[in-house]
Specification:
The complex is a heterodimer. By secondary structure, chain A is of the alpha/beta class. Chain A has 12 helices and 10 strands. Chain B has 2 domains: about 1-130 and about 240-270, no CATH class; about 155-235, no CATH class. In chain B, helix 3 (about 40-60) packs parallel to helix 6 (about 105-130). Chain B starts with 15 loop residues before the first helix and ends in a 7-residue tail after the last helix. The chains are: A alpha/beta, B mainly alpha. The interface between A and B is medium-sized, with 28 and 22 residues.
Chain lengths: ~290, ~270
């Protein structure tokens, strides 16, 4: 599976008050198995872009290909696209509605018209995959769960559709640190086990570094930077100029670099930073 | 889709109409609605339509925007139209089994439809040209005299302010929930009427839950800022009548006279 986005432009409320050009000539390709992180300040068009990838929004102009299907054409079969591209919205727990967690997770598979056994299998697998105990939770009302668990249940509802591409819009927004870590490692596990394309939006630069093979930076509806985390975060000045930042470890490294002659480092994580500092100190002592 | 509903929305501007006192516009709108039911012939509707057209032109609100607000209620208008066509007795023009169309029915249906369209456009002109806050302030002032006989004018106005304030929020919320359920493969566009009604459940339940959450947060925020009802509250911006309002009042009386007179113009129908 691959994604190809060609010259995508989208305008909200054209010709009305509140007309907004949310996307402006966005193009990129994503290869199979990639973990793609998207960053950009609020209102830069990230959510709008994600909604184009499973046909929830039709572009003002431009094309989106999923595999070799052009999903922006008039008469594509939307259920098929929705099955292949799973989209988890921001705060997905607000979309829960069934009496029990199991029924809620089964909602997507039901809509796909699968057999009862197949639905049961998928529901069980999805609930386990997001790190919840199926037997314990299947008959519980989703409204009784804690915040982090609600979010996992909601994500399971999308996983159960067994998408070939999984997209998550700010999956860790508003969670406490423990739930944050859990969701992140869960996403990692889903990617590795299902072997899919994973696209996620985050404002946490450390998460972006930890998870992504590739990072896209959006600003005012355009892609302004696109590359590996190392490439993108070496452009600290530009990122700060757009109201973004670099991972905290890199911030410290930059500070040390500015005050220490002969210290070189491109570290992005705490481990890398520690190793580089140790090397430098040892070299200095020798 | 859901965002296309412009009923009750405000269209920012600085026209003469925008600058009128909210009270003037509320009274004018009520008067206009009453007048629409005073009208009983073709001429009256022409005059009422022309007056509305002038108001729209002066307000500089795009016509496209106004008509977009009409689309959600089109079904209701069509329904009353057909009900009137078939229900009124009189000179029969066409008949099939128990169904019949009469001359009187046709005229009545047509008048009713025009009346509804003018009524909706007329009242949306009020909301389109008045900030919700000004509207409820105006309403509160107009209702003030009735608080002597126990009408909770401040509470009513506050309820309206909150309702108006949260219409866009709830629409946004609805839009988000619809999209989230669509992403899970739910389909609102096909199937018979029962299937379609059923497909609303995944939208309505999250919407209710969200509404309660929003309401609770709002109540907390109001309490945190020591809100304790209307008695003794003063306003930051007092509203006043201006010269424009006086002119508007004169025009309103004139318009009323013309409308009443129009009843006596002989028509071809
Ligand atoms: N439903 C909508 N109607 C009108 N404008 C919108 C809507 N959703 C987003 N926008 C506008 O489009 C722009 C991009 O928004 P969005 O894609 O949500 O950005 P992000 O997810 O990066 O914060 C913003 O200016 C926002 O105000
Ligand atoms: Mg967003």
């Amino acid at each position: 599976m691959s994604i190809s986005v060609k010259d995508l432009t989208y305008i909200y409320n054209p010709g009305m008050p509140g007309e907004t050009k949310a996307l402006d000539g966005v193009s990129f390709d994503v290869a199979d198995g990639t973990v793609l992180g998207i960053i950009g300040h609020t209102g830069s068009g990230k959510s709008t872009l994600l909604q184009h990838l499973n046909g929830l929004i039709r572009p003002t102009s431009g094309e989106v290909y999923i595999g070799d299907v052009c999903i922006t054409e008039k008469d594509v079969k939307m259920t098929e696209i929705r099955r292949r591209v799973g989209l988890v919205f921001q705060y997905p727990e607000y979309q829960l509605f069934e009496e029990t967690v199991a029924k809620d997770v089964a909602f997507g598979p039901h809509n796909l018209g699968l057999s009862e056994e197949e639905i049961d299998r998928r529901v069980k697998e999805a609930i386990e995959l997001v790190g919840l105990d199926y037997d314990e939770i299947k008959d519980v009302s989703p409204f009784e769960l804690s915040g982090g668990m609600k979010r996992r249940a909601a994500i399971a509802g999308v996983i159960a559709m067994e998408p070939e591409i999984l997209i998550l819009d700010e999956p860790t927004a508003g969670l406490d640190p423990a739930a944050h870590r859990d969701i992140l490692s869960m996403i990692r596990r889903i990617h590795d086990e299902m072997n899919i394309i994973l696209i996620f939006v985050s404002h946490n630069m450390s998460d972006i570094v930890e998870m992504s093979d590739r990072v896209i930076v959006m600003n005012e509806g355009k892609i302004v930077l696109d590359g590996t985390p190392r490439e993108v975060f070496s452009r600290a000045e530009e990122l700060y100029g757009m109201g973004l930042s670099v991972p905290p470890a890199r911030e410290i490294i930059e500070l040390i670099k500015s005050k220490t002659v002969g210290f070189e480092s491109e570290a992005l994580t705490i481990d890398e930073a520690a190793a580089d500092i140790k090397n430098h100190l040892e070299a200095a002592r020798a | 889709m859901i965002r296309d509903i412009t009923l009750g929305q405000y269209f920012p501007g600085n026209s003469v109409i925008h600058r009128l006192d909210a009270r003037t516009k509320i009274i004018a709108t009520l008067l206009y609605i009453v007048e629409l039911f005073v009208v009983n012939n073709f001429w009256g509707f022409i005059i009422a339509g022309a007056v509305l057209a002038i108001i729209i032109a002066v307000s500089k609100v795009p016509v496209k925007f106004i008509f977009r607000g009409l689309t959600p209620v089109l079904m209701i208008i069509a329904f009353t139209f057909f009900l009137n066509i078939f229900m009124v007795d009189g000179r029969i023009l066409w008949q099939w089994k128990f169904l019949h169309i009469t001359y009187e029915g046709l005229i009545r249906a047509f008048f009713m439809a025009v009346r509804l369209v003018l009524l909706i456009i007329g009242s949306s002109m009020m909301t389109l040209t008045t900030k919700p806050i000004a509207l409820t302030d105006g309403l509160e002032k107009l209702l003030k005299p009735f608080s002597k006989i126990g009408l909770p004018s401040h509470e009513l106005a506050l309820m309206m302010t909150i309702a108006l304030r949260f219409i866009p929020t709830l629409m946004e919320e609805t839009d988000k929930i619809i999209k989230a359920q669509q992403a899970r493969g739910s389909d609102f566009e096909s199937g018979n009427i029962i299937q379609r009604a059923k497909s609303l459940i995944p939208i309505l339940i999250p919407l209710f839950v969200s509404s309660f959450r929003i309401a609770q947060e709002l109540a907390l925020a109001m309490e945190a800022r020591c809100y304790h009802g209307g008695s003794g509250r003063t306003r930051m911006n007092e509203i006043h009548f201006h010269k424009g309002d006086a002119i508007a009042a004169v025009l309103m009386v004139l318009f009323l006279a013309v409308i009443i007179a129009s009843r006596y113009i002989p028509t071809i129908f």
